[in-house]
Amino acid sequence: MKTTLMTTFLIIFASTIFGQKIFYHEYIPTASSWDIVKWNIENQEKFEWVIQESVDEYNRVIELKFLRDGKIVDSPLCYLASKVKFEYSENIITEILFHGNDTLIAQDCEMYYKSIYHLNDKKQIIRVETFWKFDTIYSKESIEELKEYIPEYSNSVLTDSSQMEIEYYYYSFAKMNGKYPVSEAYELQDDYYYGDEPEKTSIIEGLRK
């Protein structure tokens, strides 16, 4: 009896640490992206491709890990993150992209590694700061050449027609307590990407909150 109670306690503690919770979703890689198959699976160790989603005490996603056989995917496409972290402050969401434990670098696919989304009081995106990082293993001269067409920083104030969302919220079930923040003029496109399920229904529900 004691053993059973201890096992139950350990399972609960593993899933809820300091108010945080962990959920698992089945996904598969495609030729150009990741694709959710099913939200909130059980017995995740039986699946080859699993997203581990960590959620804080306010039901906001704080980390996504794209796993294969229990380990973070180590060689995704250069523009795809295999781990994403989210940080929150008042009306700000910061999204940081990683390959494993290393942030994405600009030399690979000219890809940024961090975006800071500024929200208004309606939780709509009104401004986005974007950051690129250059790997210092390259020569100073080659980095300076890259900086001529790849910025280290951009600051975009959105217009009345801007279509903006939190990029990797697409792969999160919790999002921001269920909400899917977008710019005021945002319209969900019914294409091969945003028309897919179960992601589309999750986004539609998040837009209604």
Helical proportion, percent range:
10-25%
Number of spatially distinct domains: 1
Strand content: 25-35%
Write down the oligomeric state: single chain
Shape: globular
End-to-end Cα distance, whole Å, is 44 Å
Largest sheet: 12 strands, antiparallel
Q: What structural class results from the helix and strand content?
A: alpha+beta
Overall pLDDT level: 87
Order of secondary-structure elements = HEEEEEEEEEEEHEH
> What's the helix count?
3
Uncertain segments are: 1-15
Tally of extended strands? 12
Q: How much is the radius of gyration in Å?
A: 19 Å
Description:
The chain has about 210 residues and is an alpha+beta fold. It has one domain (about 1-209). It is built from three helices and twelve strands. The protein has helices spanning about 1-15, 140-145, 200-209; strands spanning about 15, 20-30, 35-40, 50-55, 60-70, 70, 85-90, 90-100, 100-105, 115-120, 125-130, 155. Strands 1, 2, 3, 4, 5, 6, 7, 8, 9, 10, 11 and 12 form a twelve-stranded antiparallel beta sheet that branches. A hairpin with a 2-residue loop joins strand 5 (about 60-70) and strand 6. The radius of gyration is 19 Å and the shape is globular.
